[in-house]
Amino acid sequence: MPVIAVIGAQWGDEGKGRVVDLLAQQAGAVARFSGGDNAGHTIVNPFGKFALQLVPSGIFNPRTVCIIGNGVVINPKVLIDEIDKLEERGVDTSHLFVSDRAQLIMPYHLLLDGLEEEARGGKALGTTRKGIGPAFTDKAARLGIRAGGLLDREALRERLRSIIDYKNVILTKVYGVKPLSLDEVYGQYCQYGERLSPYIRETTIMLDEALNKNELVLLEGAQGTLLDPDFGTYPYSTSSSSIAGQGCLGAGIGPTRINAVLGVYKAYCSRVGAGPMPTELKDKTGELIRERGHEYGTVSGRPRRCGWFDAVAARFSSRVNGFTGAAITRLDILDILPSLKICVAYELDGKTIDYFPASVAALERCQPVYEELEGWETSTADVRQFNKLPAKARKYVNRLEELIGCPANLVCVGPERGQAIEKTPIL
Ligand code: GDP
Ligand code: IMO
Ligand code: MG
Hints:
With 427 residues, the chain is α/β, with parallel strands linked by helices. The chain is 33% helix and 21% strand. The model has no long low-confidence stretch (mean pLDDT 97). Bound molecules: guanosine-5'-diphosphate, 6-O-phosphoryl inosine monophosphate (IMO) and magnesium ion. Magnesium ion binds next to loops.
């Protein structure tokens, strides 16, 4: 019953999707357990290039049961479009299932995400405006509507009536915008329900079955540890937990069943949206990494902020997730650099510290203390064995491993499925 949780170890976009796609070739089940369509997981495989937002990255293996777990918030329209696009491109989605407990993103969540961001003015969080924060707020406030709720139309209308009455007060009185029509929202969500009903299931039973058959189960994280609402750069964070512990909560399996926790790290750092990033490079090197790495949001197209590998943050991330191993992606992006820096500590108010402060104000004041390594200045894109990498690239990876504090299981040198080196086994 091996279960591997695949977790973003930085600020998202580390390459979780590509790692899951790779491992899913052997998997009986893959479950997404957090976030929503704020995620964009890019996959390049024999089917083509895809940017998945809600559908688990195991969808390309027809033998893999793919589950959108209870911990995910689902915009039904986005999910339907995603299913249609996959089917159009010859990807079978009949093995996709949606937890009846997953929360739905509603039209007022989308409106409120935008209105709240605008109200924050210069202190905007840079959210994806997909309604994620408002939907998770409603989950906690017990004002949510769940996927299973689409299957009982009468109950749905009653529940929507009281929620929309309340949301309309906020929309009109607080934000001065037009109210939503109950009939329109209800009609639209009934249609979504009709379309999605074949996918909606009690998915914990399906996961349990896969585990009992001794199949490999992957828990696919979204976002990254430094965007986690508890451990990330709060309030510049997302609204659902992105760490390994959430893998259990958001998929519906017990903590005793996880065998390995794989932390996915870029060989450098990137961040999209606002908030502190101690190693951000606002210079030519930062631009070079962004251009060479096409560091623009998968879904939004927003430029990502780029910087050196932050080992202080990396170690913190490993600690709160309990990583048993790391996947280091995008090593190839660094191929052209003559020298590389790794942040090994921070200077904070005249003191050297080796931990990741909770306060964003403190993090903003942290100055990185760097260690410098020589670059290898050779293409790594075609290397398939660790010992065939240039010695300086091996030294860089070995140093990251040492600083993170767990073995590197995978080293990736390109976006394609084959462009991955197994350094040490995951299990
Ligand atoms: P995710 O959100 O963690 O799944 O990551 P994204 O898909 O948002 O961003 C990662 C990007 O890096 C995607 O465009 C991937 O195709 C690409 N990628 C992943 N691993 C590698 C790698 O080793 N090298 C290169 N050059 N690109 C990679
Ligand atoms: P994947 O799964 C990178 C960021 C947003 C913003 C903050 C809050 O592809 O790694 P939200 O819409 O969640 O309320 O926005 O979180 N963010 C991501 N950044 N990758 C992601 O997902 C992200 N999902 C959210 O840019 O700064
Ligand atoms: Mg992404």
